[in-house]
Structure prediction request, 252 residues.
Amino acid sequence: MSLSLLQQACPETAIVLGSGLGAVAEAWGIEAEVGYAEVPGLSASTVPGHAGRFVLTRVKDQPVLIAQGRRHLYEGLTAHEVTAGVRFMHSLGVKRLVLTNAAGAIKDSFAVGDLMLITDHLNLLGTTPLLGGPHFHDMSEVYSLEWRERFVRAAAELGLPLHQGVYAATLGPQYETPAEIRLMRAVGADAVGMSTVPEAIQARALGMTVAGVSMLTNWAAGLKAQTLHHAEVVSVGQTASAQLAALLQKVL
Ligand code: HPA
Prediction:
């Protein structure tokens, strides 16, 4: 399938799907599909559960581009490299970007399997895709308040629990220690993950409107008597991705 199909469709809305959330793409039907390897500057993911393709779908007659699988800093890439997909989507004319991810729950009132709308983030990565410029970009509203209000209304209409909170991004690839989670909680983190923040920063710097939704796939380290496994994170994501698909369909 060729790149030109994506260019012709001129999608203004795109969604990046995180670990185990790929079923959202299948739920809406696939009009065209382009592997990341076919896009100059992109390459396929090395992580199980991350497919590595763009899927063109249609929601309420509007073309929507889905990036299924993403690259992560913990693969040894730079923040500039992991955000190549965002710049590519911007070049296609995408103006609105929904970033989804799997995250560990930190806040007590959350529950595993629920969704959290990202209100703000803590960039604990020690890097940014904007190294070298543009400098001093405003980040006071990374996650669009107007879009957040639409998500909250849509979730209420669907009778779907939707938490809100601050997403902390860590480098990984190892999960956190209980002490690290206590530190993150103390500085205001409600959920923790290894993605999303570089893409959100890049998208805002390009003037895109951004929303973020975390699927809470597990309790963060030390909060319950358990150890963390990637397979479990992917499998909770898979069972809950129908809820995410319903929410996105309502909002878009
Ligand atoms: N920590 C970091 N990343 C994650 C987690 C977690 O607990 N769950 C899913 N992604």
Remarks:
- The beta strands are 13-17, 32-35, 53-59, 62-68, 96-105, 115-123, 162-169, 191-193, 209-219.
- The two ends are 25 Å apart (CA to CA).
- The first helix runs from residue 3 to 9.
- The pocket of hypoxanthine is lined by residues 102-104, 175-176, 192-194, 217-218, 220, 228, 233 (CB under 6 Å).
